[in-house]
Design a protein that fits this description.
By secondary structure, this protein is of the alpha+beta class. It is built from 2 helices and 7 strands. Helix content is 18%, strand content 40%. A 6-stranded antiparallel barrel has the order 1-3-2-6-7-4.
Length: 180
């Protein structure tokens, strides 16, 4: 299982700073805690997403996974896409508004089983070592995935294979050190 509390070395590339993000996302969410099997959480969301929208995965240009910190041990994971991509099906989906003044975009290309390790490396290694003037504004982040034709080959009732390479970016809202 994919367990986010395990630490595996992952290299984090230099991020790109971006400003003024404003998105309205619609989708589905679940809560999890450190030590939970993320593959099972992800599979449950993919299965429900397909049942509600008829699609295995959000559109390649608009699919998002957002992880939101609830407290020190619990998190929420949101799986969806922008409102404009799901026009007629918005009413039965959850809605999340994302408004960040400043954020860092960390590019990645890793096996799907290592996404959690990559996120851990950003918060536990990259920020303390490289971000002397910045800190995360919250425990939230967005995961944006590029289109992957291999994803369409995954059987609907099976989880994403842990060796399937995922590419995209992790977006982390930031603020200046000491800002409130």
């Amino acid at each position: 299982p994919i367990i986010w509390s395990e630490r595996v070395p992952v290299t984090v590339a230099e991020p790109h700073e971006r400003k003024d993000l404003s998105l309205t996302l619609v989708g589905l969410s679940r809560q999890f805690q450190l030590g939970d099997d993320m593959a099972a959480v992800h599979h449950a969301l993919m299965t429900e997403w397909r049942a509600r929208t008829g699609k295995l995965w959000p559109d390649e240009t608009s699919g998002f996974i957002m992880v939101m910190r609830v407290d020190d041990a619990r998190f929420g994971v949101f799986f969806g896409e922008t409102v404009s991509e799901v026009e007629g099906r918005v009413e039965d989906l959850e809605r999340v508004d994302v408004n960040w003044d400043r954020y860092l975009a960390f590019p990645f290309s890793v096996e799907s089983a290592r996404i959690g390790n990559f996120v851990n490396a950003i918060y536990a290694d990259w920020f303390p070592r490289h971000a002397h003037e910045l800190e995360p504004a919250s425990g939230d982040h967005l995961q944006i995935y590029r289109a992957n034709p291999e994803m369409e080959l995954v059987e609907p009732d099976l989880p994403v294979p842990p060796t399937l390479v995922a590419e995209g970016e992790i977006w982390v809202p930031v603020r200046g050190v000491g800002w409130i």
